[in-house]
Design goal:
Strand content: 15-25%
Number of domains: 2
Distance between the termini: 36 Å
CATH superfamily of the largest domain: LpxI C-terminal catalytic domain
Number of helices: 10
CATH architecture of the largest domain: 3-Layer(aba) Sandwich
CATH class of the largest domain: Alpha Beta
Helix content: 25-40%
Number of strands: 12
Order of helices and strands: HEEHEHHHEHEHEEHEEHEEHE
Low-confidence stretches: none
Largest sheet: 6 strands, mixed
Strand order of the largest sheet: 5-12-10-8-6-7
Shape: globular
Mean pLDDT: 89
């Protein structure tokens, strides 16, 4: 809804399609909208064209459905045929194919960060707490692991504690991964969540995202902080996220994965 509000404030006409089972329907009432099943591609395309939509932003958490749950309509089945083998690829491969097909249908997919510019996470330390040498070593280890995950199009982040990989993100998402990491944490200095853009990632959809709830979950998991790739990660609810981090003593650090950053 923040993306929709920013688009409207910039003078764009806004129409929202909420995906049934994923969208918070009560939040849609502020804008012209409709609700559709994720497999009802024909209805979704008809709705977009009826409201003269040209630019699309794909935003929000969507769990990849199984084919039995998808129940595609006729148009959806045709789109699946055009997507082909990418339907069985990782999230980035699938999204690339979906964006390509949407382009062929006359739509232009733009990134949420192009509409809501302030959501892009900046470089540097954002909190009162700062990572020490051990945390920085964990961040470096996390960058190396997250890169490998990204190259395989598996996930975007991992949790590292004292050099040990407690958890890596796969289909379950960041929150579930943090819960698992919390059950595996070791005694001593807490771990670090490291989030990275996948190498060559399609940046108009599914950029790494952290928000206030991520900080709460990180604290519950016994972590000391979160490090993310600056300029490529969406930091939603920035002021609230920083306030939560400061309240619980966690650090938030935006880094350049191709260089080192030492906090002052």
């Amino acid at each position: 809804m923040r993306v929709a509000a920013a688009a409207k404030a910039a003078g764009r006409e806004v129409f929202v399609v909420g995906l049934e089972g994923f969208a918070e329907l009560s939040s849609l009432i502020s804008f012209p909208h409709a609700v559709a099943r994720i497999g009802a591609a024909g209805r979704i395309i008809e709705l977009l064209r009826a409201h003269h939509v040209r630019d699309l932003v794909l935003i929000g958490t969507v769990r990849r459905p199984s084919f039995s749950d998808l129940r595609p309509d006729i148009a959806g089945a045709k789109l699946l045929t055009r997507i082909g083998k990418a339907a069985f690829a990782g999230d980035d491969g699938l999204l690339r194919a979906v964006i390509s097909v949407l382009g062929e249908l006359g739509f232009n997919v733009i990134g949420a960060h192009e509409v809501l510019c302030e959501v892009v996470g900046p470089f540097g330390l954002l909190t009162r707490a700062a990572p020490d040498a051990l945390a920085m070593a964990d961040i470096a280890r996390g960058i190396a692991v997250a890169r490998k995950l990204g190259e395989a199009d598996v996930g975007q982040c991992c949790v590292v504690q004292q050099g040990l990989i407690l958890a890596v993100e796969a289909i379950e998402g960041t929150d579930a991964m943090l819960a698992r990491a919390g059950m595996l944490r070791r005694d001593g200095a807490g771990g670090v969540l490291v989030k990275l853009v996948k190498p060559g990632q399609e940046r108009s959809a599914d950029l790494p995202t952290i928000g206030a709830q991520t900080l709460r979950n990180a604290a519950a998991a016994g972590l000391r902080g979160i490090a993310y790739e600056a300029g490529g990660t969406m930091l939603a609810e920035r002021e609230e996220a920083i306030a939560v981090a400061n309240a619980v003593g966690l650090f938030i650090l935006g880094f350049d994965p191709d260089s080192s950053y030492q906090p002052a």
